[in-house]
Design brief:
Two copies of one chain form a homodimer.
Chain A (H helix, E strand, L loop, with lengths): L7 H16 L6 H8 L3 H7 L3 H26 L4 H18 L9 H7 L4 H24 L4 H25 L3 H24 L2
Helix pairs in contact in A: 1-2, 1-4, 4-5, 4-7, 5-8, 5-9, 7-8, 8-9
The structure holds a DNA duplex (18 and 18 nucleotides).
DNA sequence: GTCTATAATACGATAGAC
DNA sequence: GTCTATCGTATTATAGAC
């Protein structure tokens, strides 16, 4: 548990994480980050000589680790992968609701904003999503899915998750996320059932 | 067909549409919009006295209409609703690829950016998504789905669509969108099959 | 209605004292 | 390492000539 923020550097990274998550990259200014973290501007550029972009790259790496940890934690609460993954969507829905739809989807906005406008940040986002999908593929195969299905489904899971976050944030309601979770449950159950039958 | 841009006002709206779609709200400046549309700044504030926000509200309304039209057009190309909806994802994938992942998901970024930071724009986005989902519900019920399933599935379709767009833009590849489309096809087919059996 | 010049403000980034 | 004052350059928006 290194959740406890210790150094000033971590304080900046943690503040940036939250602000990028709720507002996105372009709407978040250095001034806001330093006022939120209580660090003077001079110190900020001492710790992050590459400025806002360098900070974002590090923040996204940390976010990526956090997302993988989120997948692992959700799956650890259930015996079955399918139940674990669906519970992940429910955990995110709860977080969205508790934060008034500001948090729960830390990369969603930033990855879209920078997909075609900032190659370095795009690469960092890509790497983060790649890590999450790799973890999902591993869990799905362990849970009895075929490798081919696992690849398609890991993408579908992340897409459902991100799309559900988008709609829940837009409507300020957990309902879209819950509807998506229900149908993802239907899909995963059915896919595994079909694959199991085919193998017998 | 009022696709042909006539007035200077439409020229501004059309330029804003494209820039909001590819870059988002915060990264798009008035200066860029007027230089893209070739309209002087004074004229811009003459046509849009409420400035950037007023322009965005109108652009989003137009985008919403365009999205509904997109659903109708895609469904019109196929006899079956399920095939029509899946073809919509494929159409978007093609558009993403053809525009180097800049276009194809005109509200995705803006709706996320403004979900908790701008109430007026959020309301406009919500209304646009609501219209799309209403159209989808109508088509699904016509296509043999139960009303209860149609509501859940309309959300799931939009979530898959937006999530697929996010991943395809992040990875600069149509593959995520295609994987999502395949699994959406599986889900919709299976859901209708189950409902049909239950009704007999 | 059309346009240019400019205001007021915020941005990211830096210089340089301590 | 720490901090403040400041630089240039964006931004949105306006004033006022034509």
């Amino acid at each position: 548990m290194k959740k406890k923020v210790r150094t000033k550097r971590d304080e900046i990274l943690y503040a940036a994480w939250g602000l990028f998550e709720s507002q996105g990259y372009h709407a978040t200014g250095i001034n806001q980050i330093i006022s939120e973290s209580g660090v003077p501007k001079g110190s900020f550029y001492h710790y992050f000589p590459e400025g806002k972009e360098g900070l974002a790259l590090e923040a996204i790496d940390a976010i990526g680790e956090g997302m993988i940890e989120g997948v692992r934690a959700a799956c650890a609460t259930r015996d079955d992968v399918v139940e674990g993954i669906v519970s992940l969507l429910q955990i995110i829905a709860t977080k969205l609701d508790e934060t008034e739809y500001r948090h729960g989807g830390p990369l969603t906005i930033v990855s879209l904003e920078t997909a075609t406008t900032n190659e370095r940040i795009n690469a960092a986002c890509r790497s983060a999503y790649h890590g999450v999908q790799a973890e999902l593929v591993k869990k799905l195969i362990q849970g009895g899915f075929t490798e081919s299905d696992a690849r398609d489904l890991s993408t579908t899971i992340v897409a459902s998750l991100e799309g559900g976050i988008l709609l829940s944030r837009a409507f300020h309601s957990t309902e879209p996320m819950e509807q998506t979770a229900r149908q993802l449950h239907n899909l995963l159950s059915e896919r595994r059932r079909t694959a199991t039958i085919a193998n017998n």
